[in-house]
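User: I'm putting together a small comparison set for a docking exercise, and I want a reference complex before I start. The sequence is below, and the ligand is NAP. Could you produce the 3D structure with the ligand included, as structure tokens?
Assistant: Of course. I'll restate your input first, then give the structure tokens for the complex.
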Amino acid sequence: MRIGIIGAGAMARALGGGWVAAGHEVLVGARSADKAADAATAIGAAAGTLHEAAGFGEVVLLALPVAALDEVLRSVGEQLAGRTVIDCTNAFAPDTAAPQGTTAFVLTEDAVAERVAAGAPGARVVKAFNVCAAEIWASEARVFDERRLAVPLCGDDEAALRQVATLTEDLKLQPVSAGGLNRAKYLEAVSVFTVGLWFAGHDARAVFPPLEAAFATVD
Ligand SMILES: NC(=O)c1ccc[n+]([C@@H]2O[C@H](COP(=O)([O-])OP(=O)(O)OC[C@H]3O[C@@H](n4cnc5c(N)ncnc54)[C@H](OP(=O)(O)O)[C@@H]3O)[C@@H](O)[C@H]2O)c1
């Protein structure tokens, strides 16, 4: 698959590196040519501009801070029509109400993926990869308690969801269909809540029973 990545930071490298290793053609586009080249060289991808990344891929990953989305979508949004757009963003800001000495975050907005879809008419937006840290996506060790790490996907376009599921499997991760784009806001909330648990030193997995012990089981 041809994958354009907009942004050249931690997520671009983590996910892009995995996709290059899986045999995909990846182009990293950034506003700084030097930073695009550095990231691309590090993962074995091609480098380019934001516009080149938007136009390169049948799949485009937005690996940007939420604060940059409006500006970037104003610039490249039209190019994204008809493409699968992966939104991995989180609208984190420090929780100023948290007790002193503790690190916690709140969301500055609660439905980023829906805003991305509104800013890129015709794009087939899928929320994915926003829950875990870039280090996890870059790591080879993602089987915990004998279960492969799962990646919830939210989106409205079946073909786009299949593409992102394939790209998830190519990273040796387990895709999980988690509903339409209207549910992406819950993935965004899961991320900020879970990261809060981790920063507080709690094992987030411990708060969820396995499927076989949950009250709602698949027949
Ligand atoms: N890192 C994680 O562990 C993690 C995990 C899950 C989700 N996420 C989410 O993924 C997204 C990307 O995170 P990241 O860690 O990859 O961020 P990052 O390392 O800070 O990289 C952000 C990239 O966005 C570019 N950028 C910033 N403002 C821009 C603008 N106005 N126009 C064009 N490019 C701009 C930066 O370019 P410059 O270098 O020129 O500023 C940089 O290439 C964020 O929304 C984050 O919440 C991150």
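The longest helix spans residues 184-199. Residues 2-209 form a domain with the Rossmann fold fold (CATH 3.40.50.720).
User: Thanks, that's exactly what I needed.
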